[in-house]
Design goal:
Length: 541
């Protein structure tokens, strides 16, 4: 589905020589430009932003000789891989995925980039509307960033996404956040239990347009921190609390998910016809559960033991599927195929490390990436076709090895490389553009998320308050009052708010300070909200 049919305004499509590229609620029941005049009511800030293209002097020359990393038979794709885009300063972790309607996407941090079959990218800052941005002080000072976890549903309305919020600062990671896109914006799906937070780790299509989700649970202990053990009583209480929770649920739509009791599901793949394959971890190793819409059959995995972990499943039909993962003991990768009767391990797999990702094209050919040797970033792109395993080479100037792959056709394959190097990650496509796009940096993406966030009510954990000037307020008069009241710790800012430029105050959310400002400025200010907005130019003290 094209995003144009979703009614998204101001779509910008990057002009490319070889055409375009694209990115793979819980219904239960939820450059700073010069400072403009403050009277300017609206601008067109981010909606029409163009991608920065690589200067002609830096254009990548066609690479005739790809690089190979294994002893498998080497294959060169019909169309060579070309660098289509670079992610700007993303600290690794870009993911490729397909929505249930077939739209392909890349997502990293809060950024969502649609991928076209001919190698072009589409990005619209307003697509971030509703996603909670990470406050700039955290981002700049403590390396706080988003990590994509899962994507599913249909684009643009009905899409679902789960992201983790990680931090190198004290305090570690926050609970993953889950969103669903409705009426042109993302809505946070909050579902916290007293003992745990839960979130969708995998999405899949289901009957009558429903969306299935495999849930994960994160405990809420009274003690936190590296090396600090939680009280045993709380550990037991957490285990008891999740014991009765369903792992597989229908997040949106009608119908019920197959009942697998309290089995420890690790991965699943499903179809809109009601068929499903799931991997359940048991004491002796994983077992595969095949559900045909009414009944469920257990099937063993060859070569499996207690150390094997299944991380993902690719299902093309009830009699054609793949399962991949790794052995915890030595880190080796694992890959098996299902032929309709039994699972068979692909034993010639060269993966000395886990399989990162796998995807099948419309012809049923499987593509996968995995680590193939010592050292960070030493990985390869593999293809299983006609009963044989082969390696596809990437250009010699690819950033280290491939970490993600999404295939829709033999000439429509997307690959993410890098993530460990300082240059960040790159997006490659079979026949991409001659001038690769530079995607926004993490700071830029978070600024867009902050700009398009809905006004948030004040609450006890708020770290910063934004108070806009009232329409028609005299900026000079407000500034003079603030300067006369020297004991009021605030300044006047100009910021971007959902496509407009506004003036207002950025203050501590202290109730006493808010009362002081209300008395001092009266009708010249509007209602405070717990929002951080990206600034335009410098603040006025």
């Amino acid at each position: 589905m094209s995003p144009r049919r979703g009614g998204v305004a101001a779509m910008h499509r990057v002009p490319l020589l070889a055409t375009a590229l694209a990115l793979a609620c819980w219904s239960h029941d939820g450059s700073a430009p010069s400072e403009p005049e403050p009277t300017t009511p609206a601008v067109e800030p981010t909606a029409g932003t163009t991608f920065a293209a690589t200067p002609s002097s830096e254009r990548p020359s066609p690479v005739a000789r790809p690089i190979f990393r294994t002893d498998l038979p080497h294959v060169t794709p019909t169309r060579s891989f070309v660098r289509a885009a670079r992610f700007g300063e993303i600290p690794g972790g870009a993911r490729l995925a397909r929505f249930d309607d077939g739209t392909a996407a890349a997502f990293a941090g809060p950024e969502v980039v649609l991928l076209d079959a001919d190698g072009g990218v589409q990005r619209e800052p307003m697509w971030l509307r509703g996603i909670e941005g990470i406050p700039t002080p955290w981002l700049d000072g403590n390396m706080r960033y988003w990590t994509p976890i899962a994507l599913g549903g249909s684009w643009p309305e009905g899409a679902s996404i789960t992201v983790g919020i990680d931090s190198a600062a004290r305090g570690g990671a926050a609970a993953p956040a889950m969103y669903r896109r409705m009426q042109g914006r993302w809505h946070r799906i909050a579902d916290a239990h007293r003992r745990f937070d839960r979130y969708a780790a995998v999405f899949g299509p289901w009957k009558r347009g429903s969306v299935l989700a495999l849930m994960r649970f994160e405990p809420r202990f009274s003690t936190e921190g590296e090396g600090i053990e939680p009280p045993r009583a709380e550990v037991r209480a957490f285990a008891a609390a999740i014991a009765s929770q369903k792992r597989l649920v229908v997040l949106h739509g009608e119908g019920k998910a197959p009942a697998f009791a309290a089995m420890d599901l690790r991965a699943f793949a499903s179809s809109p016809t009601g068929e499903l394959i799931a991997a359940a971890q048991e004491r002796r190793g994983p077992v595969m559960l095949h559900h045909d819409g009414t009944t469920t059959r257990r099937r063993p995995l060859p070569g499996a033991d207690a150390e094997l972990q299944i991380d993902g499943i690719v299902m093309l039909a009830r009699d054609h599927a793949y399962a991949y993962g790794r052995f915890d003991e030595d880190g080796r990768g694992y890959l098996a195929r299902f032929d309709g009767a039994a699972w068979h391990e692909i034993t010639e797999l060269p993966c000395s490390a886990a399989i990162h990702a796998a995807s099948a094209d419309r012809d049923g050919t499987l593509y996968a990436t995995c680590g193939v040797g010592p050292g960070v970033g030493n990985s390869a792109l593999l293809r299983w076709q006609g009963g044989a395993l082969q390696e596809l080479g990437l250009p010699t100037d690819a950033d280290e090895g491939p970490v993600a792959v999404l295939a829709r056709a033999p000439d429509d394959i997307w690959v993410v490389t890098g993530g460990w190097a300082e240059g960040g990650e790159s997006l490659w496509h079979t026949g991409g553009p001659e001038l690769p796009a530079t995607l926004p940096s993490l700071a830029e993406s978070n600024a867009a998320a902050l700009e398009w966030a809905e006004p948030a009510p004040m609450h006890a954990e708020c770290l910063q308050a934004w108070i806009p000037l009232a329409p028609g307020a005299d900026r000079a008069d407000v500034l003079a009052r603030l300067q006369r009241a020297q004991d009021v710790p605030t300044s006047l800012h100009t910021v971007r708010v959902q496509g407009t430029v506004q003036s207002g105050l950025v203050v501590s959310p202290s109730p006493a300070l808010l009362r002081t400002l209300s008395t001092l400025l009266g009708d010249a200010i509007g209602e405070p909200s717990c929002n951080e907005r990206p600034t335009v130019g410098a603040s006025t003290q």
